[in-house]
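Fold this: PAS domain S-box protein
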Amino acid sequence: MRPSDIQFLEEYSSFHDRICILEERTSGKIFLSNECVRFWGFKGFDQGPDTFPAFLFHLHGKVRDYAGFTEKILLKHIQDSEYFDTLFTEGHILRFFWKTVSNQEDSAYRLYTFEILAKEGDCGNFSPESPVVESIFYKLPEPAFLFDPSTLRFLAVNDAAIHLYGFSKEEFSDMNLLEIRPEEDRTDMETVIQNFAKETGIRSRGIWRHWRKDKKILYVKITANRIPLGNSFAVLTILTNVSETIETSYTLKQIRAEKQSIIESMSDRYFSLSKDWRFISANRQSLSTLGKPKEQLIGRKIWDLYPESSVRIFRDKFESAVRTQKPTTFEYKIVETGNVMEFRVYPFEEGISVFFQDITEKEKEIPNRTFSKKSL
């Protein structure tokens, strides 16, 4: 690391006293704080990790759900300027986050920080109002709550959950888990949740329907862990709101279904191709002209299914539509039958849509027309 980088570290308040990593974004090189070296056990290493992915590799076996934790970072959020997550080690609950910082030369750096929320054994003797509970819940970036598995009553709820559900802390204190579920989902739910609560360890509980105070439906992905609470147990639950993803997926499915229904009902023949010229869809009316069942078309490249000589005019027209991003219309005469087909090609972000119809009878009314004569 350059002298200016070292000076930047020295000026950055309490860097070495916290579990921190500074990364130079241009080169990818990292510098570990003294506390980071101690906490993660790098002391005594001849050579520590020199990049952030290499650092994550060293966490294998030290972090619960290592694969899920690293996948979210490296595959989904590595380009985000800020990020928050919660992770568990054998002895701690940690809040992990990063942010972008700069030195005086305006070089871009990213500061990764691990903040200890609770240590193993802290949960043995506390009430829901204790500072330990607050340190866990109120700092978590995701909604979380503790509940009693025998009664399903809420013991503690963090600020993120209050914001998500719209109930006050006082309202939550008088409620149980069934009351944040739609009424039609409550049948036998008490037994199901109590059975879940008997299992130890951090477990994913899938995606569930909840509702807010205003009765708006939420879809939440639940991760739960049974933890000691005084002389008994409680269940720590962390929730990820996936409503937008679920609703988007459902909407897209509806749109696709409606679009397919419209396409199938059209008198026009229709098919669509992806950017790499693979069939995405084709309606029933088009199959007789294409000469193949849908199962032999979808996913296959159009140029691999038909001889080059028979599709050259189509290739030229389709590629022109993609290149110019403008619709195009052309006519085509099938040599074997004498039928005249009109093709309308519409480019879109992922490929092209092609509509075509037999206009033979219409063209007979217009003498001395010239057509492309090809064999499909």
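The two ends are 65 Å apart (CA to CA). The chain has three domains: 3-118, 122-245, 266-374.
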